[in-house]
Write a structure and sequence with these properties.
- The chain has 147 residues and is α+β, with helices and mostly antiparallel strands.
- It has one domain: Sufe protein. Chain: A (Alpha-Beta Complex), CATH 3.90.1010.
- The chain has six helices and three strands.
- Strands 1-2-3 form a three-stranded antiparallel sheet, with helices on one face.
- A hairpin with a 2-residue loop joins β2 and β3.
- α3 packs parallel to α6 and α4 runs antiparallel to α6.
- The protein is globular, with a radius of gyration of 14 Å.
- The chain binds zinc ion.
- GO terms for molecular function: iron ion binding; iron-sulfur cluster binding.
Length: 147
């Protein structure tokens, strides 16, 4: 694995200074997802306000890719509508499946494009997707609680 490409400054910055890494007590849904192949774990809380992602908070342990990816996700998705969040999530998942052939849409994915290099390493893709799968799961659960 080419660490130079993977562990870019933006990833390390999110790993060292994770965003929204403090579980809020006010949430609509809480999920716990693990990635056994690497030992990554996260607990993620989502609160919706209608169709708006009002808050995403989390706690977790694991490799820098998994933890940085969740941190990046919170910066990207908080304040977005569920439709926008889905568009962004789908774009990120597509990027992770690109086997290193795509750079990602920086206008849409912002800091998440720093993870593009991960798509060349199949064993690490689950690390990068852990938080995104957790968000998808939690947002579906949160939505199902609305009338
Ligand atoms: Zn990992």
């Amino acid at each position: 694995m080419q660490l130079d490409n993977l562990y870019q400054e933006v990833i390390l910055d999110h790993y060292k200074n994770p965003q929204h890494k403090k579980l809020s007590t006010d949430f609509d849904a809480q999920v716990h997802h693990i990635n056994p192949s690497c030992g990554d774990e996260i607990t993620l809380n989502v609160k919706l306000n209608g169709q708006i992602v009002e808050s995403v908070t989390w706690d977790g342990v694991g490799c820098s890719i998994s933890q940085a990816s969740v941190s990046i996700l919170t910066d990207l998705l908080i304040g977005k509508t569920l439709n926008q969040a889905e568009t962004i999530s789908n774009s990120f998942m597509h990027l992770m499946q690109s086997k290193g052939t795509e750079k990602g849409d920086e206008n849409l994915l912002e800091d998440a494009v720093a993870l593009a290099g991960v798509s060349q390493y199949p064993a690490r893709i689950k690390c990068a997707l852990l938080g995104w799968m957790a968000f998808k799961d939690a947002s579906v659960q949160a939505l199902s609680k609305q009338n």
